[in-house]
Amino acid sequence: MSGDSETMAATGLSGHTDWLVGGALGGTIGAVAFGIVMWLLDPNVLSAAIPAIYGLEPVGPLGWGIHVAHGIGLGVVFGLLITRPLFLGILRSDAETDALARTSLVVRTIAAGFVFGLVVWAVLPLLVLPVWMDTFGGSGGANALTSAVAGSLFGHLLFGTVLGAVFAATVDLHDRTAEIPF
């Protein structure tokens, strides 16, 4: 084992559910980071628009709770995907370029989180949310959310980057073989 993987093995999670715990933890911390950005830019998105997606009235920290729950779910999806043979193979593959060849598995996992955040932004708020709003309707708070979609790119990229960093710090991917989840 190299020095980097020995350190990761000593501190990282291992076992059949490490991806679940690492993904949920990374998703929680990433969602909080994204939530802080949203709160600073437009607190109405968290307090009213997110609950409005589900037809709920804005009550206390309900929007924060829903937002963090979304982050946990997405973090678990990231953990599941990143530990499957296809994505492990991509992360571990030898790169043809010098710049990529010098990157570690940790850096590649963080980059995968960044890409995951971009994909989440492209799929959920840009494609799914408009269909959801047309199908189930929405109130005025939901209109604030749809107008904030373009501005949420930074938040989704931050979410994915933090998710990837926390996942890389908590889950040992160095000597991992893909396992059947659960």
From TrEMBL:
Keywords: Membrane, Transmembrane, Transmembrane helix
Segments crossing the lipid bilayer: 20-41, 61-82, 110-133, 153-173
Protein name per Swiss-Prot or TrEMBL: Histidine kinase
Organism the protein comes from: Natrinema pallidum
